[in-house]
Amino acid sequence: MMEEDMENGRPYQERPRTFSTVRSKSSVPLVFRLLMRINPRALIILSLLVFTGVLYVGASTSPIVVFVFCICTLSLFFSLYLTKWVLSKDEGPPEMSEISDAIRDGAEGFFRTQYGTISKMACILAFVILAIYLFRTTTPQQEASGLGRATSAYITVASFLLGALCSGIAGFVGMWVSVRANVRVSSAARRSAREALQIAVRAGGFSAIVVVCMAVFGVAILYSTFYVWLGVDSPGSMKVTDLPLLLVGYGFGASFVALFAQLGGGIYTKAADVGADLVGKVEQGIPEDDPRNPAVIADLVGDNVGDCAARGADLFESIAAEIISAMILGGTMAQRCKIEDPSGFILFPLVVHSFDLVVSSVGILSIRGTRDSSLISPIEDPMAIMQKGYSVTIMLAVLTFGVSTRWLLYTEQAPSAWLNFALCGLVGIITAYAFVWISKYYTDYKHEPVRLLALSSSTGHGTNIIAGVSLGMESTALPVLVISVAIISAYWLGQTSGLVDESGNPTGGLFGTAVATMGMLSTAGYVLTMDMFGPIADNAGGIVEMSQQPESVREITDVLDAVGNTTKATTKGFAIGSAALASFLLFSAYMDEVASFAQLPFKEVDIAVPEIFVGGLLGSMLIFLFSAWACSAVGKTAQEVVNEVRGQFIERPGIMDYKEKPDYGRCVAIVASASLREMIRPGALAIISPMAVGVIFRILGHSTGQPLLGAKVVASMLMFATVAGILMALFLNTAGGAWDNAKKYIETGALGGKGSESHKAAVTGDTVGDPFKDTAGPSLHVLIKMLATITLVMAPIFL
Fold first, then answer.
1. For the packed helices 551-598 and 477-495, what is the interaxial angle rounded to 10 degrees?
2. DSSP single-letter state for residue 138
3. Taking the domains of the chain in order of start, what are their residue ranges?
4. What's the pTM value of the predicted model, to 2 decimals?
5. What is the average per-residue pLDDT within 261-284?
6. Measuring CA to CA, which of 72, 274, 699, 703 is 20 to 30 A from 660?
C-alpha cells in the first residue's frame, strides 16, 4: 500500500493527514467575536447609526472630511467584494486544505500570543506618557486655548492607544486574508497561472485597501472628534492650525506596534526558514517546502506572521505618520502665511489618500483572469502584468493629485501656488516609480546584477557572500541620489510657490517636501497589494510541494514565488524612500515643537559642538546595534531549529523514506517562544535610547547653562540615525532579495540547477540574506519613523 501511494505521488496516505500539534484556539479578536454574535439585522442598524454619527461629526468639521468618510466607506464595501470573490474560489483537494488549516492555526495562535505581549507593553508605555504629560510645561498656544495639562495628557494617551489598536487590526487583516488565500492560489495553479495570479493579487488588494482605509479613517475620525469636542476655532479655544499636533500620539502608537510586529514576525519567519534550508536543502538534499522537513510548517506560518501581519502594521504606520506630519506642516505654513481658510492645507493629505483608495482599486481590477488554462505566456510574465496595473495606478494618481491640489491648495495670496505643489506631488510619484524600478533592477533575476551574483555561486560559498555584500552596498547609491534630488526639487518648488510670511520670507519649502511625500505614497494601496502578493504566492508554493502536486503546478507557483520575491523587495525600497521623506518632515515638526515649549529659537543643529556631535555618533551606533541584535536573534533561534530538525532526522530515520512523519509542532513551538523572547531587546533599545540620551544631556545642559542641549543632542541623534538607517536598510533589503532570487534563478536550471554545488552555495547566500531582508531591514525603516515620532511626543522631557 505504501509503495502504491508513493508511486502515485501521495505519501502518507495510510494515515490521516492531520497536524494536531500545531492547532490552537481561534485568535479572532474579541471585538470581532462579539460582533459575530449580534443578530445581522441589529448589526446593520448599529452600523447605520455609527455611520450617521461619524457623518455628523464630519459635517460639523468640514465638507472635506465628509468626502473622505464617503470614499473610505465605499472602499470598505469594495474590500468586502474582494473578500467574497477570493473566498468563493475552491480550496482544492483535502490534502491541500489540511496543510492550509495547519498553517492558519499556527499563524493565528502566534498572532494572539505576540499581540497579547505587545498590548501589555503598550499599556505600560501609555502610563509613562500620561505621567510625562501630566507634569510637563504647557505651550503658550495651549494656555491661550485653555487646553490644560490633564486634557492634553489624556488626548495624547488616547491617540497612542487608538493608533496601537488600529495598527494591530491592520496586522490581523493582513494575516487573516493570507492564510485563507494561499490554498485557493494553490488550487487555481492546477488550472491556470493567470487565475492563480489574479487570486493572489485580489487577496493582497483586500488587505491593502483595508489598511489604507483604516489609516485615513482613523486620522480623520480623531481629527473631527477633537475639532468638535474642543470647539476648535471658536473664541478662546484652540486654533485649527494647532490641532494636528494632538494627533502625534496616534502615529507613535502605530509605530510602536509596527516595530514589535516586524521584529517578532521577522525573527519567527527567518529563523524557521534558515533552519529548514540549512538542514533540508544543504544537508539532506531535499527540495524546498518538502513535507519531510520538520520545519516546513513553521516556515510557511512565518510567511504569514512576518510578511503579512507585520507588513500590514508597517504600511499602516507609514501612511499614518506621513499624513500626520504633512497635516502639522500644512497647519504651520498656513498660520505663518495668514491664510484665511487653512483647512485645505491641513486636510490635503487625507484627500490624497482617499484618491489613493480609488486609483489603487482600479489598478487591482485591471489584473484580470483569462480563459486560457495554460501557463502564463513567456512574453507576458507575472511581473509585466503587475507592472501594467501599477502603470494604470500611477497615471490615475497623477490626474487625481492635480485635481486635489487645485481644489484644496488654491489661495488668493498665491494663485499659482497649487501648480507648484502639484509639481511637488509629481516629483514624489516619479520618486516612487524610480524606487520600484531600482529595486526591481537589483533583485530580479532577469537583470544583470542577480545573474552575476548567481554566477559567483559557481566558484563557492565565499564568493557568493562577497558578491552579495558588494551588490547590496552598490544598490544604496541610486536610491540616495533619487531621494536627494526629490528633497531638493520639492523644497525649491515649495519655496518658489509665492507663499510668504508676514516678513516676506518664502515659507512653502517644507510643505513642498511634505506634498512630495504624499505623492510618493499616493499609490500606497497598489504597492501594498504587490507586497502582500509575495507571501501568499510563497505559501501557495509550499502547499503545492507538501501536497505532492504534479511538477507542472509547482512550476507555476515557482514563477509566482520568484515574482513575489521581487515585489517584496521593491515595496521595501518604496517604504524606505517614504520613511526618509516622512522622517525629514517629522524632524522639522520636532524642532518647531521644542521651540514652542522652550520659547527659544531652534532652527539649526550645529554638529561642531562636541556634545551634539556625540549625539550623532550615538544615533549611528543605534542603527548598527539594533541591526546586530535583530540578526543575532534570528541566528540564535535558527540554531535551535537546526538542532531540532537534525535531531528529528536522527530519531526518526524513516522520515526520508516517507515511513515516518516529522513532528512539525515542535519547530513551531520553538520559533514562537524564541521570537517573542528575542524581540524585546532590540525593541526596548529603540524606545529607551532617545529618551535616555535626551534626559542625560538635558541635565548636562542645565549644569553648563545650555537649556536646549538635550533637545539638540536628540535632534542630532535623530538626524544621524535617519541617514545611517536609510543606507543600512537599503543594503540589507536589496542584498537579501538578490541572494534569494539568485537561488531561484539557479533553481530554474541555470548553472547546474537544483542540487548542484552552485545551488548549495546560493542556498548559503540566501540563508545569510534571510535576516537581512525580512527582519533587520524592514524593522529599520519602522525604527526610523518611530524615533521621529517618539522624540516629538517626548519633546518636553528634553528641556
1. 40
2. P
3. 37-368+381-797
4. 0.85
5. 82
6. 274
